[in-house]
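Late entry, evening session. Most of the bench is empty. Finally got around to the prediction I had been postponing all week. Sequence below, unchanged from the version circulated by S.P.
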Amino acid sequence: MTRIAEKFAELKNRKEGALIAYITVGDPNSKETPRLVGALIEGGADIIELGIAFSDPIADGPTIQSAVGRSLASGTRPVDAFKIARTINEQYNVPLVLMTYFNPIFRLGLSKFLQLSRESKISGLIVPDLPAEEATEYRKECLAAGVDTIFLAAPSTEPRRLKQILEQTSGYLYLISLYGVTGVRTTIPDSAFNLVKSYHTLLADSIPLAVGFGISTPDQVQRLVQAGADAVIVGSAFVNLIAENSRNIDLAADKLKNLARQLKKATKIGQ
């Protein structure tokens, strides 16, 4: 059983959904990333997604694009994510997932990337621009390295393609709850909750269902968990706090911890 599977089993026993928190590595700089991740974990985050900065983040909205820009401007490199992961793992026992586009993997080489992932105790990878249809060898090597392969599904995903995606997916299925790119939404449409209900029935507990894009409030988290989500993924809301307090890391860490605590509390099933 992988670390991610163990985490979901633990949370199921506690009757809780998972809070998955995203942060961009190197925002505002690499030195502070472990501290900010620590604040999220201490606030209750169950799984951390570490975003590797890439110059063309096609799935991301303005908030995370800005974080990527700050990361690149600070001189952060893709390999820095592995050093940061090792630092985090020295203090916390929480699954770490790398979110990256395929170009950094290709440049480094898949075998080398996975070697570093294994050495850094990375639990899973998300590669938004890698189609499931082209991921057979990638999945094979990831499984050999003990790294989960997390793929994305969207509102427009057809049943035949979803089957292909699920064949390549382990850890959890990342469900994009609405059309568009990442970013905080003040409201989430009913269609998103209906989509979660549909996927919950479709998956029938075969793999955890994690829902992302637009989530930022405890009420949204609670409603998504009640609709059948095993996890909620929150990124832009945390990234905004870092951007607003980048010159005061103490304050940024406090605000991250407080928001994570509020969101985590809302994951309790049947509250």
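Two things to note before I forget:
The CA atoms of residues 57 and 65 lie 7 Å apart.
Strands lie at 18-24, 47-51, 96-99, 124-126, 148-150, 152-153, 173-176, 209-212, 231-234.
Will write this up properly tomorrow.
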